[in-house]
Amino acid sequence: MAETNFQALSNVSLLFAKDGSTTALGTAHDASDTWVALPVISFSMPHDSAALDVGPQRSGTHVQLETQGRHRRDTTTWTFDVSFKGTPSAILAVCQWAFGDGASSADFAATVGIGNGTSNSSIMKHGTAYANHSTVVFQNAGSDATNNDVTVKGCIVQSFTIKEAVGSDAGQLVCDATFFTAYAPYEENNSISADSTDAAAPKSIFSKSTTTFNSEALVLDSWEMTCSRSLERISSQDYSSYLPFGYTQTSPWEVTGTLSAKRDDSVYDALSVIKGSSAGVNISIDESSGFTLDIPDAMVDASTVDTGGSHMFQTIPFRAFAASTTANVWTLAIS
User: Which residues lie below 8 Å from residue 48, measured CB to CB, with a gap of 6+?
Assistant: First the structure.
């Protein structure tokens, strides 16, 4: 007879561990740590499964033999996506899990590296405590009637996008994050409960008071900024537990984004930098209070005109740089 239990997507909720440098990489956070229920919009979920590698074919045979197959649990990594409402707590949590700074003013400096708290470090070691990894519990997502939760440990943010638009999500700030781990997800009956539930209102494009590009005031229709890098696991400690030795960052952080602004005198006055001057300019996106995003050195990357609506917009793609090896690429004050 078929099993009668099932998992309704609408019944799944996510809990995130967020604490200081008290939990070792590779160890699941426990009830003594701080757990937050952040405002999740949507998510994907990882599952414990490894890629199949196939060895060379034996001469004189015309089918593949079972002995050729090998599941590569020693090289497996998992990624999953979570979209959050852009509340201060959600944005700062993602910043902590991405580059290690979840303070009320998050500074994305040239020295952030992998985000482990040490300047310009690109590694995290299994068994060493760090503040920039989380354990994520997908409550009610397990396939078993009893072990009905999915737990994922060692999660850090590989990339994230923050964005607002007049024409979508009621203008609310949204943060899309991609998490990375080299530790297999597992199903269990997890008794963890939230220490706090984030019920704050997300930031909104309708509350923006000033947006300047090279000191020119823009009227924004939308904006977004993406921070991304590549991560890899370091080998396998053995071929039974398949635990990694740690993580490494294998590419620099890249910060890119787009402004979509009403075409007017401000766009014309910024023409010299829009067409390309090989010099960084400042972008500032502010609310009257509680939100200040400052990007001091951004260069335009092939701006275009959007003629798809009743009036025209200037699409301004940009790439953000650090002015020096110790300068900030951007800073965000949010509360």
Answer: 184, 185, 186
Q: How many CB atoms lie within 10 A of CB 91?
A: 25
pTM to 2 decimals? Answer: 0.96
Tokens 């110790």 appear where? 326
Residues 6+ apart with CB under 8 A from 278: 299
* 254/121 Cα distance (integer angstroms): 16
Position 131, amino acid: A
Smallest CA-to-CA distance from 211 within 281, 115, 275, 284 is with: 284
User: Which residues, at least 6 apart from 156, have a Cβ–Cβ distance to it below 8 Å?
Assistant: 97, 98, 114, 115, 124, 132, 133, 134, 179, 180, 181, 231, 247
CB-based contacts of 251, cutoff 8 Å, min separation 6: 229, 230
C-alpha–C-alpha distance, residues 207 and 335, integer Å: 13
At 153-199, the pLDDT tens digits run 999 999 999 999 999 999 999 999 999 999 999 999 999 999 999 99
